[in-house]
Design goal:
The protein is α/β, with parallel strands linked by helices. It is built from eleven helices and 14 strands.
Length: 302
């Protein structure tokens, strides 16, 4: 190896591919501060044999493997099974997006699953999101997955004992019967997987909800009830939604059905309102620009 890496961004990329084995070429942009010239830098790494390009994917080249071994990086030998390769590309796509984010850390399933236990390796989760210290066991439902696969995810979550929070990334949220994804867990977030929502996920625990509630609902505070988050303990019962939360929906739905004289309020943004109305048509909606209540620049650098 005649060339030794010293650039932190390039080292970070090599370490990442050593771990995930595959990375889509377009996802390499997340590792460089200048997205304009990242393809030129990738070309240099390929020319120096640190990387190798196979069609539209990047893998470690001969120098990259040597470099990983010399510096004792986590290195996983290239798995050429096509089905597993596609799974690794999906995992690396998610992990690359949050690579330089301080609030979100993605732990892939291959670092969690116990390979000696069949019941663990056969499960459907793709990893764990750690968002500001809160862990979410994460699943992915793609458009090509059939109803049988969706049912297996339902069963998987039902039997989960360690985690109480879940994220389900879906290509098309209309395919999901939200009523089937409520099991008495803490949170089950069903999120349409696109770049906007991935960016939004960075601030899942960053909304100043209390400030918002005080501004619109004077006299309402954190609730003592499990079916709502804020209340005046009299005639206003409020739930906030940043994403679709099936557990919260079901709890509130039962309350509304049993207590028609009570006033149920939902605070959310305009986009979420459309999906929530399908499940909770009798609630009162307060549409708010939640961006006003997140200090992105001051607190986080993602």
């Amino acid at each position: 190896m005649s060339y030794f890496l010293i650039n932190k961004e390039e080292i970070s990329l090599i370490k990442f591919i050593a771990k995930y084995q595959y990375l889509n070429v377009k996802d390499a942009k997340y590792f460089f501060s200048s997205s304009r010239y990242y393809r030129n830098r990738i070309k240099v790494l390929i020319d120096k044999k640190f990387l190798r390009k196979i069609k539209w994917t990047l893998v470690l080249g001969q120098s990259g493997i040597q470099y990983a071994n010399i510096l004792n990086f986590q290195y996983n030998k290239l798995n050429k099974n096509q089905q597993y390769k596609e799974r690794l590309l999906r995992l690396s796509n998610i992990a690359a997006f949050y690579h330089n984010c301080d609030t979100v850390h993605f732990i892939p399933s291959f670092e969690i699953k116990d390979k000696t236990v069949f019941t663990t390796t056969g499960r459907r989760f793709i990893g764990v999101f750690n968002i500001n210290g809160f862990e979410y066991l994460t699943y992915q439902i793609l458009k090509e997955y059939d109803n049988k696969y969706i049912e297996s995810v339902v069963f998987d979550i039902q039997k989960e004992m360690k985690y109480g929070n879940f994220i389900i990334l879906v290509d098309d949220i209309s395919r999901i019967n939200l009523n089937n994804f409520a099991f008495g867990k803490n949170k089950i977030l069903v999120i349409e997987d696109n770049e906007t929502n991935r960016e939004k996920l960075k601030y899942l625990h960053s909304v100043r909800w209390q400030e918002l509630i005080e501004e619109y609902y004077s006299g309402c505070y954190l609730s003592k009830y499990n079916f709502c988050e804020y209340s005046n303990n009299k005639d206003i019962f409020i739930n906030t939604f940043y994403f679709i939360d099936t557990e919260k929906i079901i709890r509130f739905k039962y309350f509304i059905n049993e207590s028609s004289t009570k006033r149920a309020y939902i605070v959310c943004d305009m986009e979420l309102k459309e999906n929530l109305r399908k499940e909770l048509p009798n609630a009162n909606y307060r549409v708010v620009n939640l961006e006003k209540y997140i200090d992105k620049e001051k607190r986080y650098y993602c």
